[in-house]
Amino acid sequence: MSSTTWQYLRSSYYRQVVGARVSRWARKRQGTDPLAATLESRRIYILPTAVGLVFALMSFTMLLGSMNYNNNLSFVLTFLLTSLGFVSMHQCQRNLVGLELSFAGVDPVFAGQAAEFQIAITNHSKNHRPHLQLYIGGIVSEIDDLAAGESRVFHLEVPTQQRGRIRLDRFGVRTLFPFELFRAWAWLHMDLHGLVYPRPAAIVPEPPPTQAAQGHRQHDARGEEDFAGLRKYNVGDSPRKVAWKAYARTGDLLTKQFSGADTSSQWFDFAHVASNDIEERLSVLTRWVIDADRTQRDYGLRLPGAEFQPAHGDAHRHRCLEALALFNIKQDESKPAGAKG
User: Fold this and answer.
1) Which of 32, 119, 134, 228 could form a disulfide with 259 if both were Cys (CB 3.0 to 4.6 A apart)?
2) Which helix (H) or strand (E) holds 73?
3) pLDDT tens digits for 235-276?
């Protein structure tokens, strides 16, 4: 291993150690934030940027030159630039004070996709708040401005690798306004969680054959014998079942419902998947659930210790995929998102 590589690894290790200690210190100082928090001046940190350090060095050099040559115009320019630097520092810190940050949700994703944590920032003041950005480690949101009284949702796209719950225990908001001479930031500890479904298998065996349900339960979605009424149109409904006459009268898309003997369903059983690898079994079951949901077939799911009776729809799909995502995972084993902030 070359000396350059060793120095890089050592400096990276020291940065991680220092970052972890600073993170623990900030969390201990600030505590856990609620899902809606307002930034106060005491929790906003500020440091000069590289541009700011060059600007300070240049101002100091100009001051030395002014003192050496006793040039009044040079003194005026030096003090003007120094005053500009102090005003920039004040405005940079003030740009974050009073902002309200609140959690706006995160949709479940499949392993390998990015979990999009949505954070709403509200500007309750009468001042314009430019150049705002959220970040966590090397993950950053878009840079945007907030007008007086405006609220906007910022997105943090956190990559995922494994199923389960992903935890966003800390993120930051920062600004470089007005001249990028200073960087002001604040950390928030909201302990946010998102759900990561198992990665669907690309190639799967044929699912279990469809079975006829026992008894005389009537199915409201696919029977073709008797007209049972109208329901709101859902994306994916067959155009043949759309009530076009009702649409011509009211302008609302409605779908015809029939009741009949079509009560077939499928069971997806963890024990019947031909694989010795748990993650591969879960991936196969995930693919079966997605395919059955896409065709609006009734399906049930059996896992060790859990069983979901045959049904269909978004709520049933989420219950099954959530059970697959959290299979054999304890509640406190959620994966932290991102790196050091």
Assistant:
1) 228
2) helix 72-94
3) 656 676 778 777 778 878 887 766 554 456 789 999 999 889
Q: How far apart are CA 228 and CA 236, in angstroms?
A: 20
Q: What fold is seen in the domain 33-197?
A: Immunoglobulin-like (2.60.40)
Kindly report the number of other CB atoms within 10 A of residue 301's CB atom: 25
> What one-letter code names the amino acid at 105?
G
- Tens of pLDDT, residues 130-181: 999 999 988 999 999 999 999 999 999 999 999 999 999 899 999 999 999 9
What is the token pair recorded at 323?
Answer: 């059970």
- What region does 243 belong to: left with phi over 0, alpha with psi -120 to 50, or beta? beta
CB 157 within 8 A of CB 139: yes
Read off the pTM: 0.77
| Per-residue CA distances from 290 to 10, 198, 285 (Å) | 46, 11, 9
Task: Report the DSSP beta bridge partners of residue 144.
Answer: 132
What DSSP letter does each residue of 235-266 carry, written as one string?
TT--GGGB-HHHHHHHS--EEEEEEBS--EEE
Amino acid at 134: L
Contacts of 224 (CB under 8 A, 6+ apart): 258, 260, 262
